[in-house]
Amino acid sequence: MDEDSTVTEEVSADFPTLDRQVEEQLLPQLVAHLREHRTKLRQDWASRIQKAHLLHAMTPQEMAAETTSVYDNYVEVLETGSVEALQHYARDLSERIIPRGVETHEVVGIVLLLRDVLARSLFEKYQRDFAMLNRVLDAYEPAANRIANTVAGSFVDERERVIRQQQDAIRELSTPVLPVRERLLILPIIGVLDTERARQLTEQLLTGIRTHRAKVVVIDITGAPDVDEAVAKHLVQTVDASRLMGASVIITGLSPEIAQTLVTIGVDLSKMNTIGDLQGGLEEAERLLGYSVTRQDGAAG
Amino acid sequence: MTTGPALVSILRQGSYLIASTHTALDDSQMMRFQEDLIELIGRHRSRGVIIDVAALDVLDSFGSHTLRNIAEMARLRGALTVIVGIQPDVAFAMVQLGMGTGSVYTALDLEEGLAYLDSRVPKRPAARGEALVARG
Questions:
Q1: b/e sequence A162-183, b meaning 16+ C-beta within 10 Å
Q2: What CATH code is carried by the domain that includes residue A50?
Q3: How many separate domains does chain A show?
Q4: Which of B92, B107, B108 sits opposite A241 (nearest CB)?
């Protein structure tokens, strides 16, 4: 607050001929100017967007509609000084355009283009009166920058929200514990195993062992592209903890990369029961549990 | 030495002893449990021991060390020991702190423990040597 008033003071000192009242009327005057030339300025802006090859994802009609509302919102912020409505609109807009692959630089780009288009129209209008132009720009620039900030911020926020939502969804789906036979569980692991997922996996596996009274668990990591040292150690601990609960664990589908990584970083897997693929793992599990699967003569397949 | 422990019940079931903890044990209670159990193995000529820790939501290093010792002492007295009912959280905490149960066999619950003992403990008391070989 204090800073603002100091700035205003300095400005008045630089231009002693103009009184405060005129200054307060500057912004409304500016807004009136922008409203008056709305159609032309908006078209200028749209054509500059096209020239800059931004917003490929949108059709010309959509572009016209969106540019109109962005323009109106922009002018409104200049008039009221409150970015709340714009923030709301920007978030809404982001929600619509993010799924269509619009990038951050495009959004920031179009807002900055609008700022430039409007600034140029101000130059044009006040070109004869340099002192006045300076004062107009003093009023215009902070507001315009604030708008650019708000729009970019809202866009990034929205994007982060989408990413977080997707991460949650992946996390929920990531570690299913599937009973395949009585006392036999399978845990297919798909995707990158990070520390958080590994922790969740342990929790689900151990409670799964108790709920299903499992004696054998097959953890299949065919779908895991890589494993780091911390996660590998965690995996070993999970296997040990399962043993304490009376279940033996078979690990299947260790990829060549993971096998090499594990040996290179020196994780001790000598106590782990590993088998090449899920099929082999299931056969071994059935053997441990005393199942024997035979195919009937004459059955198809 | 007093028999009939307050916090652990030790029941005889055929040739097995079943010891269930009802609550967390402190170090002296743990030692008393050890003494009682080892004494009872001889008195009942037991061939198998099941220690059920399902009621414990925490097991410290002294506790797990004592359980290992009990199993080894029981083996010297001719009984095979199974620890059952370790809860998921306890299991993972034990592993993280590097305190496993060593070579002592563990099973999910009492039923599993009994099934394991049935499969490993010979029915005839004469074949005592079997139990010595048959540990995890």
A1: eeeeeeeeeeeebbebeeeeeb
A2: 1.10.490.70
A3: 2
A4: B92
